[in-house]
Amino acid sequence: MNISYKSLTVSLGAVALACAATTASADTVDVKYNSAQWGSVASTIHDHNQSPYSINTNAGAFNMAIDNPVPSPGILSGSSIIAWCVELTEFLNTSSTVTYDVSYATQAWAADVTRLFNAFYNDVVAAGTNVMSAAMQYAIWELVTPGNNWNVSNVDGVGFHVSSTGTGVNAAKTQADAWLTDLKNDSDLGATGKYRVVSLTHEGAPGTQDLITISEVPLPGAALMFLSALGIGGLARRKSAAAQPAEALAA
Questions:
Q1: What do you get for the CA distance between the two ends of the chain, in Å?
Q2: What is the pLDDT of residues 157-181, one digit of tens each?
Q3: Distances from the Cα of 37 to the Cαs of 41, 79, 119, 124, 144, in angstroms?
Q4: Span of the secretion signal (predicted)?
Q5: Which of 212, 147, 146, 149 is nearest to 177 (CA)?
Q6: CB neighbours of 109 closer than 8 A, spacing ≥ 6?
Q7: pLDDT tens digits, one per residue of 49-79
Q8: Any idea where the domains of the chain sit in the sequence?
Q9: Residue 108 and residue 114: Cα distance in Å, rounded?
Q10: What is the Cα–Cα distance from 127 to 60, expressed in whole angstroms?
């Protein structure tokens, strides 16, 4: 079957747009706790918006098994994700499979948390330590809690802070504060990058922690069309060259 260059380009463009629409739709996913991804740091944290609310917890990333993303593969794919807490008043359910609604984050804090991941997540992965993992969790809590002052150590009567001390806690606080200072002072830092923040929210009974994870930004439909056009153009040129007489090619 012969397909013209123009019609094939349009078809590829339609596929690209359809894929983009699919990844933007709302998903659900079954999630169950596996383990602490890089270990954790025992911490005492406060939310001064909660009178203040204080809790002892283990700060760090979670490795979560995922199953049945709908539609498949949806925003999330694979057998597991690395996830982080976004609530200070809920605990993570570590014993049961929980169904979450999954969508790209649109909350007020989404842009700053996205910048955090784009700027520093690769450093956390490269280090692979409980201190760097806790630092990322501290920074996330600071950014998602109302009253953010770009510092996890200071006590100003509003927002979030870490009150405990100790070698691991102090190192994680120092690292988190350094990242937050950089983000505050440079609004372009992490503004573009490969990651997009994904929200996992559970609207059922209290006691189940909402989470965030990240997905790599898909290639935009326009870029897919451009690359496809380059490939088609190259194929057309090769066919044209092959059709010319040998003496013409030698000339």
A1: 34
A2: 889 999 999 999 999 999 999 999 9
A3: 12, 14, 20, 11, 21
A4: 1-26
A5: 149
A6: 143, 144, 148
A7: 888 789 999 999 999 999 888 888 888 888 9
A8: 26-219
A9: 11
A10: 13
Share of the chain above pLDDT 70, in %: 76
Q: Which tens digits make up the pLDDT trace of 126-137?
A: 999 999 999 999
**Residue 235, pLDDT score:** 47
Q: Which residue(s) pair with 83 in the sheet?
A: 62
Residue 83 · residue 213 · CB < 8 Å: yes
Give the amino acid at 152: V
**C-alpha span between 183 and 189 (Å, rounded):** 6
